[in-house]
Design brief:
The protein is α+β, with helices and mostly antiparallel strands. The chain has six helices and two strands, in the order ββαααααα.
Length: 110
C-alpha cells in the first residue's frame, strides 16, 4: 500500500512442488480505459486513481532502478546471500521445457 492505495498487484499459485508468481507495479497511470470495464454502483462516482511509482517519486524510474530496488528488498527481507542469476545460467534449463509449454495437453492438464 502507498498513501492508502494499492501499489503492487500480486498473485501466487502453488501445486505439487511448483510455484507460479505473478505481480505488477504501475509506473505511470496508464489505466484510462479501466472505468469502461468497472461496475460502478449508483453511489460511486468514479474509479479512484491508482498508486503509481511516478506519483510517489515525482518521476518515472528506469526499469533497472525498479529491478535493483526489488532485488535489494529480497536481500534485506528474505536472503542476504541472494545473488543475481545470469540469463545464460538458466537459459539451457528453461529451453528444455519449451516443448511442454507448446503442448496444450501438458499446459491444461489437471
Amino acid at each position: 500500500m502507498a498513501q492508502g492505495s494499492k501499489l503492487v498487484g500480486s498473485a501466487q499459485y502453488r501445486d505439487d512442488g511448483a510455484l507460479l508468481q505473478h505481480g505488477s507495479i504501475l509506473v505511470n497511470d496508464d489505466q484510462s480505459s479501466l472505468p469502461d470495464f468497472a461496475r460502478l454502483s449508483a453511489e460511486s462516482e468514479s474509479v479512484p486513481a491508482p498508486a503509481t511509482l511516478h506519483a510517489l517519486l515525482g518521476r518515472s524510474p528506469d526499469p533497472a532502478e525498479v529491478a535493483e530496488a526489488m532485488f535489494d528488498a529480497v536481500r534485506s527481507l528474505e536472503d542476504v546471500d541472494a545473488i543475481e542469476l545470469d540469463e545464460d545460467e538458466v537459459r539451457g534449463a528453461a529451453l528444455q521445457h519449451v516443448s511442454h509449454f507448446l503442448d496444450e495437453g501438458w499446459t491444461w492438464r489437471r
